[in-house]
User: Fold these one by one.
Assistant:
Number 1:
Amino acid sequence: MSEIPGKLSFQLKTMQDLAVYSHLRDFRDMSIAEIGGGDSRILPQLAKTNRCFNIEPFEGADNGPKGEVRITGVENIRTTVGRFDPILKDASFDVVFSVSVVEHVADPEFSAFLEDNIRILKPGGVMYHAIDMYLSDSPTDFWRDRFEMYRKAVTERDDLLPVGAIGASQPAFTPDMASNPDHIMYGWKTISPSLNDLRQIAQSVSLLIGVRRC
């Protein structure tokens, strides 16, 4: 969790971490890689019973760490998924996952990102991606198109099998969704001010996609 003076701050990333971890916590003796893990909150727990890797360039992109972060029991692989870097061998991992990474992948680069995910995943392996989205109380063209891109990516391929429900094709915010509290959104005003207008009319939520490689 992120820290603010005098207390710990509960935020959407807490829910994302728990959602992803709930799918992985019982895994043992697996090869698990987090994409863009930075100073990972999940890998320290998984590393107690698995072989864990952090695929992270540590270049400071998208508010990530600018210097290498060492985590006990976790091996850093300093590269970026989507470049088909030979340092990442084919069929290397039983599990690949990310939290708040996929939304930073530009739409034209998403296909390569997905293909590289599949390439490094072992047959029968699974991947989970928690993806940040902004939703208002009615669907918008941008997020409808973005959601449809993600949905098609995991439902229209013979080599992938969705894990769990994919959800509706018309994403809109509803009261049963978790979102970021106001003080977190206020803090983001200085971190990424370009989205401030959007934050006035939309809620920050997460989409969790799970896929198994056939």
Number 2:
Amino acid sequence: MDDQTRNILEILEDDARILPEEIAALTGMTVEEINQKIEYLEKAKIIRKYKTIIDWELAGENYVYAIIELKVHLERKLGYQAIAERLYKFPEVRSVRLLSGEHDISITVRGNSMKQVAFFVAEKIATLDQVQSTATHFVLKTYKENGLILDEPDQVKRLAVSP
């Protein structure tokens, strides 16, 4: 990949709403060149999706997120892809990743309550034939998402401690 293409991708990754005119100004390329590159990158599926990061807590929605680590037993002639495909079809599942280490797969799920997520894991994930065990970690707070800091630290004013 050439430096210009990498630069365009990094600019778009940082701000998907940036206009081609602004990218052209940042890169020294013409708007037509930018549009052609972006069209190519979309057709080649290098650019997969434009995403908005939403702070649901600030929006007044109280979603519960959990990261579930799975140990799986692979079926004969089927690899991790088969179990990944079963997992990512559930609408609650936000991401599926193959891991190294103690667990084989990590999924991130979203629900309306801890109880709903717990039932989802118990009824839909743990019951899959390939799943040997699960470890569920509820997300208590997200400080940074996709490179964006969500929780800007406030200036904490502490009282002086006197002896």
Number 3:
Amino acid sequence: MRRQKRDRMERAFQKGYMAGIEGKSKDSCPKVNPTEHQEWLNGWREGRVDNWDGLTGVRGIHRIAEITMQ
């Protein structure tokens, strides 16, 4: 059975989250489409909050798994 492609908005959010958790700048957003850009920024903000809360490394594995499984 073939796996369906992920939703573009979901993927933009996940990529933004990963950038935020890694401490990257929000200016590094590669998205040009306004809706994808906004979704990437939403993920980035959530990732930054998790980074500030200390959910990095082993502590954040469960949170990252939640984000990627949505």
Number 4:
Amino acid sequence: MTDTPTTTPTPADVSADRARLLSIVKAKAIVHGRVTLSSGREADFYVDLRRITLDGEAAPLVGRVMLDRVKDLEFDAVGGLTLGADPVATSMLHARAAQGGRLDAFVVRKAGKAHGLQQRIEGPSIAGRRVLVVEDTSTTGASPLEAAAAAREAGAEVVAVATIADRATGAAERFAEEGLDYRYVFDVHELGLA
């Protein structure tokens, strides 16, 4: 199991981190205008959370806020389908280390490698471990579901799926159909998009 953190953020710390992260997301990640999403659906806005998860100020906030959102779950590793999940998982790994604990991260390739060890999942082995699948945001849930299937195939127990933002476009329902607990930090109302 994951090492227990030696320091725990106070509710005030978490509240301040969450408020600052929301402010940064609204300022830097929301793009208005007609876009086609990876699901093929069209939308009047795009939430480009890579502008946040790869931002020097926001990434540490992502790690702390996401860890707080799943603090009641027990898991050893965090990861998901590359590319959206990678910086989220890394932020959480670093946040846990800063709290004095340990959390491993893993990356699920979109396809298995044709060379080297030909692994679909990179990082420490997740076989026999409890894992959290993450993503920055999800429209239909396809990427986290693919990552969850790959993690299960590798012998892991998937405890939940967690994202920074929920678009309210069907992902939650798909996760429920698959029996996966789903957590997110912000919804479209908080982001000012509903």
